[in-house]
Amino acid sequence: MKRPVVQGCCLWISGYVLAIYTEIAWLTWMTSALLLAALLVIYALRLPGRQPLGALLLVLIAYGYYQGNDQRNITALPLAQQGQVGEAGSEVTLLGRFASPVTIDGDRASFTLEAESVRFPEGTAFPLRGESVQVSLRLMEQAQQTVASGWRRGDALTLTGTLRSPSPARNFGGFDYRRYLRLHHTHWLLSAKGVDQAQVQPAAAHFSVVQLLRWNDELRAALSRRMDVIFPASQAGFMKSMLIGLTDDLDPDRFQQFSELGLTHILAISGLNIAVFLGVCIWVLRRFQVTKETYLLICMCLLPFYVLVTGASPSIVRAGLMSMIALYAARRGGMKEVLHILALAAWSMLVWDPYFLLDVSFQLSFLVTLGLILGVQRVTILISPWMTSSTLKNTLAITLVSQSVSFPVSIYYFNQFSLLSWLANAVLVPVISMIVFPAGLVALALGLVYIPLGQRIGQLITWLNQAIFWITDQLQQIPHLTMIWPSPSMAWICFYYGFLVIIYLLWHRSYLSSKDEIPIQLEVDLKGSAQRMPIKLSLFLAIAGFLILLWMGYSPNRFQRTGLVQFIDVGQGDAILIRTPYGRHILIDGGGTLTFRKAGDEWKIRKDPFEVGQKLLVPLLKKRGIQSLVLLVLTHEDADHSGGLQAVIEQIPVKQFLFNGTFKESSAMTTFFSTLVQKKVPLLPAQVEDWIPIDPVTKLQVIYPLETNSTTVEIVKEQNARSVVFLLEMQGTRWLFTGDMEKESEAAVLEYLRDPRNSPSTASVT
Fold it and tell me: Where is the Metallo-beta-lactamase domain (predicted)?
């Protein structure tokens, strides 16, 4: 009861969680308003039992508020027209205004449209009342990039294209784009070709929220251009992400590297940026002899603009709100309880948009902040007997707390954890936060005034960044230290945090007992009789239970003896994942993204194009907790079967690779085989006489190609006729996999199998 705001926020979140997982139809905005009125009356009259009753009412109010918002999150398009559009799409003309900056990447321009109305070909029109529509405009000529880059937020737009519903997840556990857009209040996609399909009318210049956002877009673009001058091309994207939250130019490979090492929070604008910004502002204002009340007020007014300039992600909004509340409290000499400030910030954001609760950035930001507030000082005390350096103790405590608190959320969304994450964070985060980030701000500020001066400081930062990148490169190359975790259940996550609390309490009691501040025995009531258990034994059992929980979470299906064959939707091409009854995995082909480029089309190349292996296949494998592949089969080397496998072999250990024994000349296949050789993966040319044992109840038999030479690799351009064809027998059930086998190949296989001499061999492949 000493922290009513914190308790209220926890109850409010509980109501949201119940609303997400259950449905009570009568709880809506109206019932929430009535329950809120009842709550106010109960507390105004000081009725007995008001505290538990008030807690229950607050949960129900939050439930109704979330459900009311969710029920109103629907499209304004009538049902008949929704069926007409569907996923196939319908040609329409949209009228509206740009609701976001235009992002240009190669031959694509994308933006959000605030649609006022939609007109169908037959002439019928329907109002959309400002509904958001995600637009993808294909640019037909390079000159159209310049035209599209001149469009600004707030400009009126009439655009003709194909309107369609976003696709749901096409694979179990896959990314649900429809749900993602709905959580951002968007229900439709519009695709169009060429800027000639768009009629744009620039917005009139007058002060408004839209005009303020336009200025903010222009400021961010100007800062981005200046950073391109201050920092070299290899560093600019990294610094933009860190300083102003622009990730468009960030190297995808560098982001993947930081993600695998658990360092992506460095690239996100958060509380660190706010702290440095406020520190600089207060230092400057003090030098001008500004009074405390005045500079606190000025900083409060500047913070919203800084949040906008840095992109207004949930993490920076959280830090900005907390800082504004803290500055206001400091100015008025009022509330200084950090937990209250955190709860007020969370409550404000969740009332503004209940879907924030489902945002990974929101979850990680608040969880880690809460953990640091509650845990760092306590953990520092507990580890003090083993360390004397206060710097080392604080660094270790911060790393231990932040890693422990964020771990379940990280593996739930990203399905990986590096055993070097704690080391990378302990070593690199202080350097980046204390040197690189502040120096980057100074370089940017000076570069705005005098470019050569900013470039000199930028060069110093570049040298330090190169050292940081070298360290991350070396850490990433250490094998077998990145663990792949399946997404855990909510029950597992609750048990995880419960064990953390129990371990801390027992560790704390053990620490106090070593100081002779409490009895050495811990009272444990078991079946009504008082028994005594040593604290250290209790702590040992809690840690053992925690380790068992981690073991179960890492491989929850280890004792399941059911085989599973999954045909993964990768668009063009095939990808088949097999789980044997003993938990071993085989992947057959990997799909691929086909691209057709002519000479002179280099401008169409995108910085981060969709690649089926990186964007779809690998995330699905990790989501399923595939820690290794006992066998990777490439039936043939056409791009729609092999293209997605490069990302697979880079991120998931492969024990053996089976292919048709040929080579199709291309840069992609050269890179693919080079990576296999570098990783020392055994290459198995397919041979008909071989059985490949997978586990005690699973085996694989190649039945085509009939003629192979294991000593040489033949170069073959047309690969379909050389597809690997094989039988998989699992628990008595047989499966035939044929790749892109052709008619002639089928005839050859049938003729071969008719010969009684060609009975299956029992030889095994090592």
Answer: 569-757
79-196 folds as: OB fold (Dihydrolipoamide Acetyltransferase, E2P) (2.40.50)
| Torsion, CA 518, CA 521, CA 522, CA 528, rounded to 10 | -130
Does the pLDDT of residue 26 top 80, yes or no?
yes
CA dist 515 to 390, 422, 507, 534, Å? Answer: 20, 30, 13, 16
SS3 content of the chain, % helix, strand, coil (to 5): 55, 15, 30
Torsion angle, alpha carbons of 704, 708, 713, 715, to 10:
-60
Kindly give, in sequence order, each residue whose CB lies less than 8 Å from that of residue 465, ignoring residues fewer than 6 positions away: 235, 238, 239, 436
Cα–Cα distances in Å, from 142 out to 139, 148, 228, 474?
7, 10, 22, 40
112: enclosing H helix or E strand: strand 108-119
Q: Report the first-to-last Cα separation within the chain, whole angstroms.
A: 67
Name the nearest CA neighbour of 95 among 125, 66, 137: 125
How far is residue 110 CA from its own chain's centroid? Answer: 20
Torsion, Cα 231 236 242 245, to 10 degrees, reads: 130
**Cβ count near 101 (within 10 Å):** 20
Q: Which two tokens stand for residue 78?
A: 């009538």
Q: Which is nearest to 69 in space by CA: 30, 112, 100? A: 30
3-state secondary structure 236-298: HHHHHHHHHCCCCCCCHHHHHHHHHCCCHHHHCCCHHHHHHHHHHHHHHHHHCCCCHHHHHHH
> Which of the four pLDDT bands, split at 50, 70 and 90, describes residue 709?
low
Q: Return the pLDDT at 189.
A: 94
pLDDT at 760: 54
Say how far apart CA 740 and CA 750 lie, in whole Å: 16
Domain range summary for the chain, segments of one domain joined by +? 4-72, 79-196, 212-358+428-477, 490-515+532-554, 564-595+605-754
Mean pLDDT of 434-447: 88
Show Cβ contacts of residue 122 under 8 Å, excluding neighbours closer than 6 positions: none
Q: Do the beta carbons of residue 730 and residue 631 sit within 8 Å?
A: no
Apex 111 CA angle, 105 and 115, nearest 5: 160
Domain 564-595+605-754 has CATH 3.60.15.10: yes
Instruction: Annotate 357-403 with DSSP letters as a single string.
Output: GG-HHHHHHHHHHHHHHHHHHHHHHHHGGG---HHHHHHHHHHHHHH
